């Protein structure tokens, strides 16, 4: 669902109730198109997120703490200059638009009291964050818009701020009932009611329009004729909900349990297996919806070059292996060449120069069948035999070489998959930097743009604690896997890894004086290993486990690659909630 004007009105109300009078303590810019204001209000700390990214523009209180870049961007520095220490006076919605003005009490460059604004425009791909003076003169903008970008509206420092031009639609909060009925009467009876609402009234998302139509027709896809009796009543009931601020923060989850929609009213248009969930506030609602999506979006933006490098490497290796397999299949003809050479040598007295082929009995077959052997008429019989022996020897050598090359290609492809698996679970800038370091040391540095090697630091190790108090460590990438298995873990600890699939190395630490942990600890450690692998969504996932001292790293092997020969195997089903409950910091 789009972050529409109705949702924004509830967010604005919530911000005024929570943050009014709050002091701006810190300002961050974790992403290229999003900022976080940390305010202290009513004795507590609150984090206000404003995102102008095209994939998920929004503004709300958040509990997430994304990692910030080491060097703050210029726009972040500008925000800190104007708003650090300022107090939030009020938040207002600009009409019934997807734009809000945050007014702060602060001081000018000479120390005199004044007000400055942060204007958040939540308008899809046209979203923006703008800093203005008390008189709405623009002094800073996240995404500048000049004549080359838009002829209708420019947003540049020094200009006077103006709202984007309207769409010639009515304000649903101020429209009169008589006008609504007239518009409905002038609409074709066969037209979908939701299309009628969206075409005539500003600031209403498709989800809300569908809900109004559903309540009126009793089914999805209701026409104007089907909704005639109660469309007006249901429309104005929703508008009254917005005016009164008595909405219902509702999240819709699909069959897989993942968020698919969210809204400010109860959503009756969905039925099983789709479920709805009510949240205590609109900030927690929007936070829950965007948590996974924004993490993946941020990851792909920051690690786009790595994804491209790995996908190109995968395609290159796959093409190379296809060619090598075809050439290896051709090498099977080598035995035929040897047979022809033997038969020509045994029957050389029957051959003459100038023959183009010869029919000879195959003494090596049970029925002594006759086969035709092609000859080069320019060569003598013995020379023809030597030609086939040379082809046989060449194919035999090629077979050995191709087999070795295929094994190396398969090993490199398996390594690429382990890096992709690590990258899919990376959550912080530090973890992605470790993956860059790993690729650098694996010979991929020349293909990464602007890469500079960093000083060695202890790699990212995630710590868990089982229900019985056992410590479990989990590597977040291949460098961390090597560090955990070969340096951090004790020889008598237990080592876990998902069977025959990319995944993290996991170590279950024994307690002092204890040879083996409990059965529950083994099960929970195996679950952690299964969850931190490519099989995280599987059922009854096989996980190998053995003593750390039995795990060996071959000399010259790629990061994360180890071998072991004696192990036990446990079968577990990963439980995301259970694994996250065991997660610990540090």
Task: Please characterize this protein's 3D structure.
Helix content is 39%, strand content 20%. It contains 15 helices and 21 strands. The chain has a 7-stranded antiparallel β-sheet with strand order 20-19-17-18-16-15-21. A 5-stranded antiparallel β-sheet has the order 5-6-7-8-9. Helix 4 (193-200) packs across helix 5 (206-217). The chain is elongated, with a radius of gyration of 34 Å.
> How does the major sheet shape up?
7 strands, antiparallel
- Which secondary-structure class do the elements indicate? alpha+beta
Strand count: 21
Radius of gyration: 34 Å
Give the percentage of residues in beta strands: 15-25%
Helix content: 25-40%
Give the overall shape, derived from the CA principal axes: elongated
Low-confidence stretches: none
Write the layout of secondary structure elements.
Layout: H1 5-19, E1 23-31, E2 34-41, E3 44-51, E4 58-62, H2 74-83, E5 87-93, E6 99-107, E7 113-121, E8 128-133, E9 138-141, H3 177-185, H4 193-200, H5 206-217, H6 224-227, H7 231-244, E10 250-253, E11 259-263, E12 275-278, H8 282-302, H9 304-331, H10 334-346, E13 357-361, E14 370-374, H11 381-425, H12 429-444, E15 461-465, E16 471-475, H13 478-488, E17 494-498, E18 506-508, H14 519-531, E19 541-547, E20 568-572, H15 576-582, E21 583-584
Antiparallel strand pairs: 1-2, 2-3, 3-4, 5-6, 6-7, 7-8, 8-9, 10-11, 10-12, 13-14, 15-16, 15-21, 16-18, 17-18, 17-19, 19-20
Helix pairs in contact: 4-5, 5-7, 9-11, 10-11
Question: Which labels suit this protein?
Answer:
586 residues; alpha+beta; seven-stranded antiparallel sheet; five-stranded antiparallel sheet; 15 helices; 21 strands; 20% strand
């Amino acid at each position: 669902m789009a972050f529409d004007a109705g949702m924004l009105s509830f967010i604005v109300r919530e911000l005024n109730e929570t943050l009014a009078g709050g002091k701006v303590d810190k300002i961050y810019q974790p992403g290229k198109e999003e900022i976080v204001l940390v305010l202290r209000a009513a004795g507590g700390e609150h984090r206000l997120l404003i995102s102008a990214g095209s994939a998920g523009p929004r503004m709300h209180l958040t509990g997430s703490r994304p990692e910030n870049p080491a060097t703050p961007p210029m726009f972040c520095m500008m925000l800190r200059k104007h708003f650090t220490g300022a107090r939030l006076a009020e938040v207002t919605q600009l009409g019934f638009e997807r734009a809000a003005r945050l007014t702060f009490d602060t001081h000018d460059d000479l120390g005199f009291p004044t007000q400055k604004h942060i204007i958040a425009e939540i308008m899809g791909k046209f979203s923006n964050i703008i800093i203005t003076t008390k008189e709405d003169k623009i002094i800073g903008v996240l995404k500048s818009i000049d004549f080359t970008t838009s002829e209708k509206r420019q947003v540049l420092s020094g200009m006077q701020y103006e709202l984007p031009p309207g769409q010639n639609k009515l304000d649903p909060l101020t429209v009169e009932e008589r006008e609504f009925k007239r518009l409905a009467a002038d609409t074709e009876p066969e037209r979908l009611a939701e299309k009628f609402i969206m075409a005539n009234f500003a600031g209403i998302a498709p989800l809300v329009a569908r809900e109004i139509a559903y309540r009126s027709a009793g089914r999805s896809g209701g026409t104007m004729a089907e909704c005639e009796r109660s469309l007006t009543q249901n429309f104005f009931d929703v508008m009254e909900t917005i005016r009164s601020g008595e909405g219902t923060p509702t999240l819709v989850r699909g069959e897989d349990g993942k968020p698919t929609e969210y809204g400010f009213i109860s959503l009756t248009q969905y039925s099983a297996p789709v479920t709805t969930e009510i949240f205590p506030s609109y900030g927690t609602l929007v936070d829950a919806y965007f948590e996974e999506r924004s993490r993946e979006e941020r990851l792909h933006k920051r690690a786009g070059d790595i994804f491209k490098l790995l996908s190109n490497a995968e395609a290159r290796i796959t093409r190379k292996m296809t060619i090598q397999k075809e050439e290896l299949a051709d090498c099977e003809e080598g035995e035929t060449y040897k047979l022809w050479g033997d038969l020509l040598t045994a029957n050389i007295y029957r051959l003459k120069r100038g023959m183009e082929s010869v029919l000879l009995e195959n003494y090596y077959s049970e029925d002594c069948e006759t086969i035709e052997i092609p000859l080069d008429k320019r060569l003598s019989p013995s020379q023809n035999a030597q030609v086939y022996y040379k082809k046989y020897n060449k194919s035999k050598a090629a077979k050995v070489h191709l087999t070795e090359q295929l094994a190396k290609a398969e090993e490199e492809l398996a390594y690429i998959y382990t890096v992709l698996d690590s990258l899919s679970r990376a959550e912080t800038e530090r973890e992605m930097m470790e993956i860059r370091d790993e690729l650098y040391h694996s010979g991929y540095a020349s293909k990464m743009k602007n890469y500079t090697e960093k000083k060695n630091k202890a790699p990212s190790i995630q710590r868990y604690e089982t229900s019985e108090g056992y410590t479990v460590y989990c590597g977040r990438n291949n460098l961390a896997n090597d560090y955990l298995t070969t340096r951090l873990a004790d020889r008598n600890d237990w080592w876990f890894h998902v069977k025959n699939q990319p995944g993290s190395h996991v170590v279950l630490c024994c307690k002092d004086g204890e040879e083996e942990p409990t059965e529950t600890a083994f099960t929970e450690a195996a679950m952690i290993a299964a969850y931190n692998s490519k099989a995280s969504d599987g059922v009854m996932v096989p996980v190998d486990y053995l003593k750390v001292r039995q795990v060996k790293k071959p000399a010259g092997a790629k990061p994360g690659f180890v071998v072991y020969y004696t192990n036990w195997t446990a079968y577990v089903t990963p439980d995301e909630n259970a694994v996250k409950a065991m997660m610990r910091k540090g």
